[in-house]
Every structure is written in structure tokens, then in C-alpha cells.
Amino acid sequence: MSDPAGRGVVWLGSPAFPDAARDALKDTQLRANLKRATSTIRDKRLAVASELDDWEELRTSAAAIKKRTARHLDHYLVQLEESVTAAGGTVHWASDAAEANRIVTELVRATGEREVVKIKSMATQEIGLNEHLADEGITAYETDLAELIVQLGEDRPSHILVPAIHKNRTEIRDLFAAEMGHWGRPAPDGLTDDPAELADAARRHLREKFLTAKVAVSGANFAVADTGTVVVVESEGNGRMCLTLPPTLITVMGIEKVVPTWTDLEVFLQLLPRSSTGERMNPYTSTWTGTTDGDGPAAFHLVLLDNGRTDTLADTVGRQALACIRCSACLNVCPVFERTGGHAYGSVYPGPIGAVLTPQLVGVENAASLPFASTLCGACYDACPVKIDIPEVLAHLRARVVEQARAERRTPTAEALAMKAAATVLGSPALLGVAQRTAAIGGRALARRGRIGRLPGPLRGWSDSRDTPAPPAESFRTWWRKNRSQKEGER
Amino acid sequence: MSSREAILGRVRAALADVPVDEIPEDVPVPRNYRRAHTAPGDDLVTLFAERVADYRATVHRTDETGLTDAIAAALTARGVRRLALPRDFPSALLPSGPWTWHREPLEVPDLDALDGTVTLAAAGIAVTGTVVLDTGAGQGRRALTLVPDHHLCIVYAEQIAADVPDALGLLDPTRPLTFVSGPSATSDIELDRVEGVHGPRTLDVIVVDPTHPEHP
Ligand code: SF4
């Protein structure tokens, strides 16, 4: 795992997106799984979102709450710290991944334990906590079924919501049979690939961990500044197990997860499940405020993580990415993600949100290909429950990549040249007309049966993984001029 | 400098575009959304029952006089015998029969050895089909409704809020809250929904409603 610029974000940016995507596109099984997953969740989301005739008003409120929070983040963080402390919790501040990992390690050490149970958490994935704990001799057990599959397979998540969607039931069965025994209770003999049986094997395997673990690590979906309440949204109950059974709970959350008031949750708890799993409400939502005598952990630690977020906040266009509630709706509507899957993005944050968040967290110079991993079709913006204008941020980051590259060397990059050429042509109707006519003639000359295979020269990267439809014999502009002028002539 | 000061300093530096005299309330938060996605006069109890059932939970309706029989019928249907009970669960509601009742305090391994649990609730949410537990009267601590495989939850009609905003307004955020919408579920294996991974695999809800006596 590389760590450019010592940012401490787990980032596997090599190979760069175009190369990783090309490999992913060759994997027809992956493409079929993804297509089924994204279209199924997309349809469910549309159905339950359309039940609420004030969906747009909810989005507007959510975006406004996030904007208020971002513009006064220092105020709300201090308020959150006070409320959590008053309720019996302890707050820690971590500038980067290394510091967060160190804090968690010391907290675990202080309990004398060498094992922790974990709820799926993007923040801890981002900082590579499990790997760090392993280096320190502490085993972290992922307890979400999909995360368990990913962990047993020494794999990486491919989707925010369904991290193991790239695996088939048979692969999961084989994995359980081969690996569970190394981590604890082995899979039962004769395990079949029936999902109910597989889930039951996971239940048995993990139950002994839940019942004996003394320390749990979680993320947080929200933390409420005025009350100090932390919120975890989940489906399986593994979250509830971790949050209530072990005597020590350590929660790691990005500083952007704070919301101002308890009342604000009425907006997010309506938007998140519907946008994420396409349910009116996810099976379990847990909220806790500090510690409660005789119920749940006796010690609660909240680690507030910066790790590049303040840099993101400093970019007045890019900061809106911090509003993300990790629902994954933008992944499921993205034509690029649907074909490449999450691995190609090289980051724990895949898809459209990954394409804008990762470069900001690791520095655009270290993830220069990601802002280009999009068609700018705008579907992600329409789907986003907190109205993050992802295409706007993408275009903004593309410009930053180009500027950065130009500043670094005298000779302009291929992107800069292409953008410059495109700008010249698009800016001049006459040149555009010529270009379109040339493309139409040249394109038809290259095409076989209406498809063009590999394109020559710099366009190869595009045509490697897809057939390009032959350009139409006449451009839309030509057609429009002809038909409009005919119509106008008729009048 | 501590990391706390460093992070807060970086946040302030990053927000150089925010006028120094701007206060949070200067950033407007419009709240033009609805308080509830129901119409006045809607039958919230029926809506709640339908939406809970949508999650593949089983819903029973009864009035107060039929409650004990309804509990007995639900437990019989599930074949559960050894049941965990919150410390303050009203004894008067318990049916007599083949059941053994184990009152809190119970250690987690004891809970794990029981078949199920019977509790009251703090609130219901009609539009989302959600039961809310706040560990208050008759609900027990959180482990009680989590570890045993079957949860039978009793919700009174007057506890049912129309929608999420009203429900949150009624609840006390200083208590640990659990919002339960159907049994534990996963869709992680080829998106096939499987009920029950770690939480209770079966959820029964009895709605106590004086206007809809449907005795078992
Ligand atoms: S960017 Fe928006 S749509 Fe995408 S995961 Fe975040 S909140 Fe969801």
C-alpha cells in the first residue's frame, strides 16, 4: 500500500484508474454482478424516495445543514467535545492516520486486550487501522458479513454498501470453508452455497467473538453537537453487538460527521436509508450519548479524525464533498462505476464520491486520474441526498490537475493539449462543424458494421475497453440546420 | 501544540472565506419538508401494522383485554419456551403455560442460552414501520433485545408517532435508543435478503389498540 505525501490515507493508486479499469472491464463476471447490484438498488431507491413528495425539500434542508456545519465546523466540534465529555465519554483528536492509529492502539493496550471486534467503518479503512493493529499484535475482527468475506479473502471492498458484491455465493462458500477455521470457529462440514446457510455460518463464527470481546471499534454515521449523541445505522445487528456488549467502545469518526442538533437527525434519518439500501428505514439504528450505567460499555472514546479533511475544507468548491453521508447512491447511478466496480478507484471511497473525495484527501497530484473517471453525466448529483454537485467538483479538480501539471513542467501534458484543442474547437462553431464532418467521414471509413474497434493514437485508452459507435453520417448540427431551415422555409 | 489546537487552527484557517462575524444561525436552514407523510385523520395504527409487516416481521393486533392471550399465541406459534424478561415487565400480562420467565439481571451468556424475549417499547413510527426502544419501562437493557433469537415487542396505539420527525421529538436523546425496523437482515450475498445474521432472526409485534379488537 503506498502512502503518497505521507497523507496516511490507504490509497492503492497504482495502477492508475485507466489501467485498473481496463482490467476490471475484462472481468465479465464482475460486470454482471455489478450491473445486477447497481440496477436493483437503484430501482429500490427510486421507489422509496418517490414515496416522499417532499424529497427535494429534504435534500435542500440536508444540504443547508451540512453547509452551516462546514462553515462553523470549529464551533460544532468544540460543542460536540463538551457534550460527549459531559455525558461520560472521552474525546481524542487525531491530525492524521498515524495519530489516530496510535491513539486506538494505546486505548486497546490499556485494556490489556489483544483482540477487538469491529463494525464496518470507512474512516478506519481509510487509515488502515486493521493493518496497523495487526502490526502491533492486536487482531481486529470485522463483523459485518460482507466485511468478514472481504477480510477472510484478504480482499478489498468493491462497493460502499455491499463491499463483497464482486464475490459469488460459491466463492463465499469456498472461502468460509477454507478460512474460517484460521480465525475462530470453523465453518460447519458440508456447508452449501445457500445464502441463508452462509449467513448462519457467519452468525455462529462471529457469535463467540461478540460474547467474549472486551473492546469494540466502530465508525459513526452522525454525531450530534448539542447532545453528544453518536449514531450508527446498520442492518445485521453486528453493530448493536459491538456497541453494547464489550466494556470498552472506541469510535473513530471524520470531523465532517458532526451535525448541529438532535432535530437535524429527522432529516438525515429519512434520507440515508432510502438513498442507501432503498428501505424506508434500515433494520437497526443505534444512538448513544456517552455512557449509561449498567447498560453498554463503561468506557466510551470518540476519536475525531482530520487526515486531509481540513485541506478539503479550505477549497471553497471542493469542500462540499465533506457533506457526504456515504449512502452510495451516486455509485449505483454512475455508468463508469457500474462497469469498473470499486477496486479500480484504488481507494476506500469509490465511484463518483471517491473521484472527488480521494484526490482531495491524498492531494490531487497523487490521484490525478480520478477526477477524469467520470462522464460528467450528472446522474450522481441528481441522486445525492445532500445535493453535492459532484460534476462541479470534478470539473474543478480536473482544472487543478491540469494547472498542477502545467506548473510542474514546461511542455504541456496530453490532457492540457487535448483540453486546449477541445476548447478551441468547441468555442468556434465553424471549427466544430469542420471537425464533425471530418469525424463523420473518417469514422465511417474506419467502421466495420457500424462499430469501430480500437482507435489509433491517444484515443486508444478509450477504445480499448469498448467499441465506439461510428459517428452518424451527419452531425446533429447539420441535421438541425437542414430540418430547421426547411421548417422555417415552410412557414 | 496539541492536535486539538492544530486541527481547530486548520479548520479556522480553511474557513478564511467565512466572515468573522458570521454566526451559525446566519446560514439559513430552510425546513420546508413535511413533519409527516400522512394525512390528518389517517389510521396510523393500520399504517404502522402494514409497514412493520412489510419488513417480514409478524404483526398481531388486539385490545388490552386480549393482550395476554395474544402473547401466548405468538409464543406458541414460534415454539419458544425460555424467555428473558425486563426487570420491570408487568407480571399481570404474562400468560400461564409452558413458559419459563427469566428476569433481569441476566449475564450475556445466560441471554444467549434463552429462546427469546418479551418487551414493551418506547415508541412506534407509522410511516417507516419502526419500533423504538429506549431501555425505559418494561424494555430492559439493550442486550436483552439483541442476543436471544426471538423478540416479541408490545406497542400501544397511543405510542405510535406518524413519522420520523415527530418520533424524534418525543424521544430523549440522553437515553440509549435502538430503532428496530424488522428483524436483523443482510443482503450481502448476491443481494439475496436473508433474515437474521447477528440480531434476533424473528420479530413479532403486538399492537394494543382499543378500537381494533382482533383477538387471537
Ligand atoms: S456523494 Fe452523495 S450520493 Fe454519493 S455517497 Fe455521498 S451522500 Fe451518497
From TrEMBL, chain A:
InterPro entries: 4Fe4S_Fe-S-bd (IPR017896), FTHF_cligase-like_sf (IPR024185), Helical_ferredxn (IPR009051), LUD_dom (IPR003741), LutB/LldF (IPR004452), LutB_C (IPR024569), NagB/RpiA_transferase-like (IPR037171). Pfam families: Fer4_8, LUD_dom, LutB_C. It comes from Streptomyces vietnamensis. Residues 457-491 are annotated as: Disordered. Residues 407-483 form the Lactate utilization protein B C-terminal domain. Keywords: 4Fe-4S, Electron transport, Iron, Iron-sulfur, Metal-binding, Repeat, Transport. Residues 321-388 form the 4Fe-4S ferredoxin-type domain. GO terms for molecular function: 4 iron, 4 sulfur cluster binding. Transmembrane segments: none annotated. GO terms for biological process: lactate metabolic process. This is (4Fe-4S) protein. Residues 79-291 form the LUD domain.
UniProtKB/TrEMBL annotation, chain B:
It comes from the Bacteria. Coiled coil: none annotated. Pfam families: LUD_dom (PF02589). Residues 117-208 form the LUD domain. InterPro entries: FTHF_cligase-like_sf, LUD_dom, NagB/RpiA_transferase-like. Transmembrane segments: none annotated. This is Lactate utilization protein C. It comes from Streptomyces vietnamensis. The lineage of its organism: Bacteria, Bacillati, Actinomycetota, Actinomycetes, Kitasatosporales.
